[in-house]
Amino acid sequence: MSEERPLLGPYHIERRLAAGGMAEIFVARREGLHGFSKRVALKRILPQFSSDPDFVWMFIDEARLAALLEHPNIVQVFDFGTMGDDLVLVMELVDGSNVSRVLRTASEDLPIPWDVALHIAYQTAQALDYAHHAVDDKGEPLEFVHRDVSPANILLSRTGHVKLTDFGIATVRSRAPTTEDGQVRGKLGYMSPEQVLGKELSGKSDVFTLSTVLAEMLIGEPLFQGESELNVLLQIRDADLRVLARCERRIPQDIRTLVLRGLQRDPAERPTAGAFAEACAEVIRRRGMGHGPDRVARLLSQLNLVEGEGPDVHLPGAKVPSLVDSDLMHHAGQELIGPQAVTSPTIYRVQLTDGSVMGPMSYPRLIQLLTTGVIDSRSSKISKADGTYLDPSRLPELTRFVTSPGLQWKLEELAQAEKQGQLRAATLLPVFYDIISRQQTGVLHLWQRNRRKKIYFVDGKPDFVASTDKSELLGEYLVATGQCLRMEIEMALALLPKYGGRLGDALVGLGILRPVELFRAISDQVRGRLMESFRWRRGEWAFVRGARSHEETFPTGQDPYELLRDAASEAHLEEIESVLEPLGERVVERCEDGPPLTVFRLPPTWVGVLDSVSGDTTLGGVLARESASGADLEPVYRALYLGLACGLVRTKVSPSQMPFRESYSA
C-alpha cells in the first residue's frame, strides 16, 4: 500500500491505529456520492498469519458473533469480507478513550468520581445483559459469555458514552470450538474464580470481572495484586478482597455493598448482569447522580485523554486478547536460548554412606532422586563437575531441596506423631475428616515399604503434598497430561538454578507455560495427589501436629469438606461395600453434633439417604428399603460411607468399633 491515502477495498486508509500480536487496526474513511463520508475502524489479521486456518476461522467467528449483537453500548460491526487478499472486519470508530487509560491517568488529585464509575459500570452491565440474553436467527438462546470484560475493552466516547468491545474470545452455545479444551483465555487480573480454575462459565463470570473493573475505578489501584502472576491468580481464585477492605473507607456503604455482591466467589451468589445494572441505576437515582455522559466526557477532558488529532482509542483487537498476550509471559530465559546457551551440562556424582557412588548424572536427574527420597541429602555427599565430594547444603543450586522440610523424608519426625494407625482400603477418609473438622495444622505421613507421601494441612485445609512417586512430580504430570513436551521439561529443569529451584517458575520464565496455565496445572496436580492417597489399600499413617512445609504452596481452592465428598464419590464401590457389610445389623442414627450437610454440597440423592436415617432402622434395613423402592444402590452406599466416616451418622456403638475406623487412635 502506498503512503498517500492507500485503499483497502472501498476504504481509504488514514493511519494505522494499533497492532497486536496477530492483528492490526486502521482508521479509514468510506466516501461516496454527494459528499457522503464516514470514518470507521478496520481490523485485519497480520499478513504473516492470514494463511493460518485457525486464526482465519477465529476471525470469521468473531465477526459472525459481533454481527448478532446490536446495542447502543456495544461497538457495532458494519461489514465483513475479503478486500484484496485480506479478510477485513469493519467496525464503528469510537472517538475517545477507554477505561484502561483513565485508570492509568487518574490520580489522587483527580480521581475517578463515584458517579462516573457507576455510570460506566451501569452501561457496561446493560450491554452484558443484552448479550447474555441474545438469541440466534431461530430464537434459540446464544448463552453468550464475553470472557474478557477488562478496562481496555470498555471504550468511552468523547461525548461520554460507553461501548463494550472485543468479542474475539467470547463463547456462545453454538460456537464451534476454536481452542483446545482448557486453554486459557482472558487477561490476567480480570478473570473470575471459575475462569482461573477452568470451570464452566456463565454470564455471572462477566459480572465478576465487571465488578473488578468497578472496584478499581473506585479505589484507584488494582484489586488483585501480588509479587507474581501466580499470586494474583490465587487472589482471584479465592476472591481475596483484602485490597478492597483496606480502601473501604473511601467508598460509601451502598456502593461497597453493590461491588461486593458482584465479587462473590460462588457464581450462584452473584447477581445477573441485568440485576447488577438495576442495582447501579438504583444507587445513581438515590444519590441524585444524573448526567452520566456529561460527567464522563468532562473527566476525559480533564485527564487530557481526548485532545489531539483524531480519535485516541484502543479498538477491538488492538492487542488481540483472543490470542496469547505477550505481556502475560516472562521472557527472562530467552537470552539463554540460542547458540550462546549451548554448553556442556554439569555432571554430578553422589557418594552414599557405604562409600558407593551413583552417577554420573545430570542436574535434573539429581533433583528427581532427591525429591523422591532415593538419595538422603543428610547422609550423602555430592560432587559437581568432578570436584570434591561436599555436603549437599554447600551447593547453592541444591539449597531448596536439602533445607525445605516439605521436600525431606525424615523418619525421625514420626517419633513426634500425635496419632497413627494402619491403612486399609477405604480407611483414610475418617482420618482426613478428623484433621479437617478440628482445623488442625500439621503433616499426615503415609507410607508402605519404599512408597511415601506427606500431606501438609494448615488450619484443616490441605496445603502441600509431597510424594516419592516419580509419576506425581510436576514435570511428569505435565508431560502425562500433554501440557508440556519432555524436551521442554528437560530444558526447564536444566535451568532450575536460575529460578530458585522451582520448575514452575522456570516453565513460565521460558515462555513454555503462561502463569494461569501453570496455576491450573499445579492445582490439578495437588488435587490428584490428594485423591490418590484415598486409594491406598495397605500401609501406615501418622499425623505430626504443628509441622509446616515452608514451601510456596498453591492449595486447590476446593473446600476441604467437598474434597471428602469427592473422595467418597471416587472410592471403589466394592471397598465401600466391604466396609459397610459388617455393620449391616447395627442401628444407624443421625449425629446431632455432626457438621451440617450443606458444607459437603452433596448430590440430592445422598442428602435424601442421610435425611432418611431416623435411628430406628439398621444399616442393612436402610439398604433394603432403598432397594425395594427401585433406587440405584451405589449412591446409597456412598452416602452412608461418607456419613459414617465424617460424623454425619453413626451406629449405636462406639465409632472406634467400626471396621474402617478401628485403626484410628488419638
The domain count comes to 3
**C-alpha-based Rg, rounded:** 30 Å
Q: Which spans have pLDDT < 50 for at least 5 consecutive residues?
A: 176-184, 308-344, 654-658, 662-666
CATH class of the largest domain: Mainly Alpha
CATH superfamily of the largest domain: Transferase(Phosphotransferase) domain 1
Specify the CATH architecture of the largest domain: Orthogonal Bundle
User: Taking strands numbered 1, 2, ... along the chain, how are they ordered across the largest sheet?
Assistant: 1-2-3-4-6-5
SS-derived structural category: alpha+beta
Question: Please, how many helices?
Answer: 22
Instruction: State the major sheet.
Output: 6 strands, antiparallel
Fraction of residues in helix: 25-40%
CATH topology of the largest domain: Transferase(Phosphotransferase), domain 1
Overall mean pLDDT: 83
* Large-scale geometry: globular
Percent in strands? 15-25%
